[in-house]
Amino acid sequence: MPLNLLIINGPNLNLLGRREPDIYGEDTFEDFLLHLRGLFVDSDVEIHYYQSNHEGKIIDKLHEIGFSYDGIILNAGALTHTSIAIGDAVAAIEAPVIEVHISNVHKREKFRHHSYVSANAEGVIVGLGLRGYELAVQYFI
Ligand code: DQA
Fold first, then answer.
1. pLDDT tens track for 37-68
2. Which of ligand 1's atoms lies nearest the C-alpha of 75?
């Protein structure tokens, strides 16, 4: 059985590549995903991907796969800093969650310093760009 992982990206992360490239880089997530899957082609791992701009849809997805997948890599975008409900969903499910942020949120505005996800996550990777997702996959493997 392959290791089943799901990457969940929250609001505005569908605009990667076009959105504030000085902060988030010039790669689209779709291109990065091809690269990421290529890196792990010889590992017995399936890297699934879901993106939504809607809080409730992210919660629904966590519920849907949170009792069957082996790991979740969650970048909830700005909802990280506002959503008690996403934090509760991460606590409610069984699958371990690694929280990832592309930018170093601690170097940025104060409102980005708090996360409702972190306390319920297995670990947190911030500020390493898209490589954070790669390191999270490696951790799960
Ligand atoms: C982000 C950081 C958040 O503060 C921001 O709202 C995002 C992206 C990151 O990956 O660096 O949308 O999660």
1. 999 999 999 999 999 999 999 999 999 999 99
2. 13
